[in-house]
Write a structure and sequence with these properties.
By secondary structure, this protein is an alpha/beta fold. Helix content is 42%, strand content 19%. The chain is built from 7 helices and 7 strands, in the order αααβαβαββαβαββ. The protein has a 7-stranded mixed sheet, with helices on both faces. Helix 2 runs antiparallel to helix 3. The longest helix has 39 residues.
Length: 254
């Protein structure tokens, strides 16, 4: 039975904590390139008198500035709206135990925790600041307090390739733009194996990331069923339609 059937996604997406920027080097890099090409465009028209070069530079400036703006929108607002839709469609009862792999400052972890008045939300991370600005366990704990869910949230420092939890500990595994940070395919496969191991029979896995076709193949090899993946909409573009994560879902057989 769903306990939040009428909650609008915008209400769930409304956050009170501070969640930083995902991989902050990228919007900064694209923004600087956009400004650089904009300056080159003006110079090409008025200093060098090469209008064709100026047009090319202005087009590049628009593309890079759009990429930066899209990235900033997603990491600051869009991803919350998309994950609110995803979580509400899961039909959680409110007593589940869930784990967020690579929780960062708690964007997804604390949102799902607010849907678990009788459950528990566990977040694990290695707290790398290049993966999320200001990433730290203490910051996530502060965000949990601001969201009013600190009582049913547990945070751990752990590598998702080797997790300190017993088999069948969780009803739901979620992860958002984290597994791809493991640089080698075998490491990503190991993280997925750990996720499947920790799920209870009938438990679900929901991952938003890149490389989801490869993830899906790994999960089928691990015996997971109902493996599906789909593209996420423009609110989850990390720079534009050329950088679109997909949503992967799977279930552990009962």
């Amino acid at each position: 039975m769903e306990i939040f059937p009428n909650m609008p996604a915008r209400q769930l997406a409304r956050r009170h904590g501070e969640y930083g920027f995902d991989e902050p080097v990228w919007p900064l890099f694209f923004g600087l390139l956009g400004v650089l090409f904009l300056l080159l465009g003006f110079l090409s028209f008025w200093a060098f008198a090469i209008p064709v070069l100026g047009v090319i530079c202005f087009v590049c400036a628009i593309l890079f500035l759009f990429t930066a703006a899209s990235y900033v929108y997603t990491t600051r607002r869009g991803k919350f709206q998309v994950w609110a839709d995803i979580l509400l469609r899961l039909g959680l009862r409110g007593d589940e135990h869930i784990i967020d792999l690579g929780c960062g400052r708690g964007a997804v972890l604390l949102m799902v925790a607010s849907l678990l008045p009788r459950g528990k939300a566990t977040g694990i991370d290695v707290w790398k600041v290049h993966e999320q600005s200001g990433n730290a366990l203490s910051v996530t704990q502060q965000n949990a307090e601001r969201e009013g869910v600190s009582g049913n949230v547990a945070l751990h420092t752990a590598d998702m390739q080797q997790l300190p939890f017993s088999d069948g500990s969780f009803d739901l595994v979620v992860s958002s733009l984290a597994i791809h940070n493991i640089r080698n395919p075998e490491g990503r496969k190991q993280a997925l194996s750990e996720a499947a191991r920790m799920l209870k029979p009938g438990g679900r896995l929901v991952v938003a990331d890149f490389f989801t076709r490869h993830y899906g193949e790994c999960l089928r090899e691990l015996g997971m069923t109902d493996v599906t993946h789909r593209s996420l909409d423009w609110r989850f573009w990390y720079g534009g339609p050329w950088a679109v994560p997909r949503l992967l879902s799977a279930r552990k057989p009962s």
